Amino acid sequence: MNVNQFFEALPARYNASAAAGLTKTIQWNITDADPGVWAFEIVDGEGRLIPGGVEEPDTTFTTDAATWIAIAQGTQDAMRAFMTGRLKVTGDTMLATRSAELFGPQAG
């Protein structure tokens, strides 16, 4: 899996029932990929992928492609990547912790 394949598959893994009533935007800044910015907008539980990102996401993950793919595949622990500085999270950190619930175990 490459980073573009991960994001293109994200809508199929989206768990709308876990996001019922939620209106938030999650963004990923992949520092060494093209395109490097992807967002997923949730409006009252309905979700859509936004290549290129948005102006003001609620939470943002920033990392390189290899780290994100390792997190997505379960070979890298997201918390360890965060603690070692390989993954940065800004904004609503509680939303960030819900990514596995919202997108399945390969979401980070």
Automatic annotation (TrEMBL):
One of its GO terms (cellular component) is cytosol. It comes from the Bacteria. SUPFAM superfamilies: SCP-like (SSF55718). Residues 5-103 form the SCP2 domain. InterPro entries: SCP2_sterol-bd_dom, SCP2_sterol-bd_dom_sf. This is SCP2 sterol-binding domain-containing protein.
